[in-house]
Sodium-independent anion transporter (Paracoccus kondratievae), 555 residues
Amino acid sequence: MNQKVNAAPGFAQLFTPKLITVLREGYGAAQLRADAVAGLTVAIVALPLSMAIAIASGGTPAQGLYTAIVGGFLVSLLGGSRYQVGGPAGAFIVLIAGIAAQHGMSGLILATFMSGMMLLAIGLLRLGTFIKFIPFPVTVGFTAGIAVIIFTSQLKEIFGLALENEPGALIEKIPALWQVRDTVTPAAMGVALGTIAVIVGLKRLRPHWPGMLIAVALAAIFIAVTGANVATIGSQFGGIPSTLPAPALPEFSPDKVKALLPGAMSLTLLGAIESLLSAVVADGMTGRRHRSNCELVAQGVANMGSALFGGICVTGTIARTATNVRSGAHGPVAGMLHSVFLLGFMLVAAPLASYIPLAALAGVLAVVAWNMIEKPAIAILLRSGWGETAVLAVTFLLTIFRDLTEAIVVGLALGSVLFIQRMSQAVGVEALVGADLADSDQPRADQPQVRDVMVYRISGALFFGATASIGSVLDRIQDGLQVLVVDFSAVPFLDSTGANMIEGLAHKAQRRGIDLWLTGASRDIRRVLLRHGLRRPLAHYAPTVEEALRRHNRP
């Protein structure tokens, strides 16, 4: 009985959440204990980070917690990765701040909801595989560019500068900050630098301790004891609420949706890339495999859920996901518990958050920005050649000085052109005339007459990028030929441009009375050739060059 081996996976296989898979495997007290420890560890990391990212994005610290609680819970509940932890991410700061500045907080919440709908659609349409086709230099370049923007956005709080309307663009921001350099607050600068020093020091001396939380807590204690004149969450935002708000749909109107569409698409693109990269990192650390389309569906639902509670964009975060894995998480329950622990913090310790200085959160983001820059990867790419260096540099500079979406699109286009150029150089053609064939190691018995034969052996993918160079060789048909053989045995792929070139060669051979034989073509390649009209009498097919010559010489 024939069995279908390469059947396409069904809907259930693609979209069953990993939580269901883990529960089916068996889940008991030991697994719950491991997930609880990991969830608490991740919550300790996520607590200061979520508030800091929300503030840097133009929101409130409460919005960062709403995002981590609601969005993070839904990502783990519905996601296609065992270990993915969702929440607000530093990579979104630039986009979110720009949307909030242009359309207000209500516009940002609507854009987040729209982005969730788009991510849901991308996942259901099974386009997650294509999202991962982003060249490595592009991801490294835009991540480094975002890191630079995040760091410069925190300079005001790090130095305690008095600047009312801080420009968003980097070129305008630096001169504006320089003009108010006389307003530096030594206490704020001391708190920020002290926070950075504690985080870096604990990472070296006690790497398993929650350095960010300890640093922020020490800064808050310092402010509470000394009463230093430094802006805090309490003085800036009035503290954080102790409960989640009631869910509500974002303000909606056709004109608003139209205006927010470009921003929502940017959030969707970055969210898909960031979440799938994070899932891939988790796979590499654990040997597991995530379900990319299921993960995008979960990200979509999580973003819509976050928007309903007034939160900002949600995505899978590499730092929190890696922390989850290292802490011994067993499955998605750890990510769900991380959200529960954050909710518990809001219910119990919300008043204490009022003492947290903004300079300390700025110090946290400064460390995050430094860690975002993939220094070893940049060094490797700079040594890899001019192509990778150009893609990296262009993406990095466009991210800083233009727009993140433009940087990704241009970087992807440049990387694609580089790939096409290299692939075209990898395609070769070898021409064998009659004398070359006669001198080959073929058996002498039944040897066909080859004096009037030319054979072209093509190697590599014959696609639009290689047709110009290959076509110029194939067109050199010598006078007096009777047989022209084009061997495809070393061609793994043929596109319509390459087939069109072979069709032109066939018509040229037909006009000159030359028999064209196409040999070694796989079933897929032969299908493309036939689709372009390459059939008898225009062309003949044979499995090998030798068989083609025998058939031609057969009386």
User: Anything to note?
Assistant: The mean pLDDT is 86.
